[in-house]
Amino acid sequence: MRADTKINRSTRRGTRRRTVPMLRTPPLPALVGGTALALTGAIGLWQILPGHIAPTVGAGHGRGMSQVGAFDSAREGWTAEEILGHYYPGAELGQVGPTTIGVRLQAQDDATLDTYAAAGAQVAGRMIGPGEAAHLTPLPDGGASIVVTTGCDGEVLWQAATDDPYVYPVDAGPGRPPDEHLTLCGGTAYRGALGVALEGGAYRTVNQVDLDDYLAGLLPAEMQANWADQGAFEALRAQAIAARSYALAEDRYSYAQTCDTTDCQVYPGTVKEDSRTTEAVAATTGTVLLRDGLILRSEYSAAPDGGRPADIETFAVGPAPDEIIETAPAPPIPLEPTVPDPTIEALAGESVIDTEYRRIGGAESAIGAPIGPEMQLPQHAGTYRLYTNGVIVATKTLGAQVVDFSTLLQLVPGAGDQLSPSGSAEPKVTTPEGQAPTGITPGDGAQVPAHPGGPAQAAVPSHPGGPTQAAGGAPVAGVPLGEPVYGPANPAAAPGIHDGE
């Protein structure tokens, strides 16, 4: 459909009054986004009676298309284009090409990304096997620390840092089968790629997904799929066009366009997908609403009284259709699956500690030259390596972290016994006295020994979720006393990781 095609608004019906039975419940506060209700998609939101439909909770903000009005109109024979023309007078229809959209998964805020797929996946340029889980923690440089385990909380297979903070399905493209969908440990599944980002130091999880795959998950959460069986398939088509337009007009974050809650539009991943709503998405592929050639942020709500036409001049707009970036190709699949090293040793000949050491400047960095080989932390929680003026510790959750050597000596005085005669007799102090090392991470179960087999002085609690303290009761730096411990070893404890709706 051409971008300058006017919506047919010759409905010949004028303003209509509909008798719509509804439960008398207090209206919800006005919403900011284009969603129907504060609990859209939950069981019991809609009550379908013979010939009628009514929301069982409030009416939403009332701006733009009324979903109830769209249902009524579709049953009376209106097309999706007529429905949209009634609610968005003056809008035009345009067309966009295939594209992807970034969606912030708000329930995953402040948690690491822990994900797997039944068919395997790609991460950091490597294949991971079926059921193997990738645990990603965002890094300040825009990359991520990656730990791959057997299952969600099994043995560590390998660990690395990467500039590409995403896990990809084994094959690119939309409409992939369920065994290729990425599933959150303890949670639901998503089409497309899952990745991580930092926002003001806080962890964020992003679903980078084909636009129509996104709508396939969104539509049955915003409208009931069985409306198609009630003679209201055209209402589903109208909803698909409005939702596509709303999403493409969004520009909320530097790392994602939109979000997955009623702050934006409700998007629960694949859990509610239905062939009837997927058909409605496919029947409108690429179609968007425009105002003055720009994609309209077409708000909508439940509005059980049928709603009224909107003043589209009050709605925000996004880019023009020809400014939409077409779908970028996914990273190429490795020609031959890489067999992971059974330890966290060298990736392409280099361990994660070596990678971090090289990144910070090697022997020219503040921690100086290496002293001795990498050594295992107790309970196989990771590895560490001593240097002239510091130590690098590699743990499950945060990858490689530099720890000031003087701080390490405060917690583990015997660690100096490992220095070779060529080592500096008086290591530099670069951390204020009394500060705990930031590289020893709560939740790893890591203890830094004074020497191989020696006593551990910097222990963390063995029970997940407990307060994290160093020896003597001092809190570990950067972790508030009493904060719960999250990480791949205990993904179910992390906020936002749940077992679906």
Q: Sheet with the most strands?
A: 7 strands, mixed
| Oligomeric form | single chain
Uncertain segments of ≥5 residues (pLDDT<50)? Answer: 1-58, 336-347, 420-501
The mean pLDDT is: 74
End-to-end Cα distance, whole Å, is 37 Å
Strand % is: 15-25%
Helix content: 10-25%
List keywords for this structure.
501 residues, disordered N terminus, single chain, alpha+beta, seven-stranded mixed β-sheet, elongated, six-stranded antiparallel β-sheet
Q: Can you walk me through this structure?
A:
This protein is an alpha+beta fold. 14% of the residues lie in helices and 22% in strands. It has seven helices and 25 strands. The strands form six sheets. The chain has a seven-stranded mixed sheet. The chain has a six-stranded antiparallel sheet with strand order 12-11-10-7-14-15. Helix 1 (67-75) packs antiparallel against helix 4 (233-249), helix 2 (80-87) packs across helix 4 and helix 3 crosses helix 4. The longest helix is centred in the middle third of the chain and has 17 residues, at 233-249. It starts with a strand and ends in a 90-residue tail after the last helix. The model is unreliable at 1-58, 336-347 and 420-501 (pLDDT under 50).
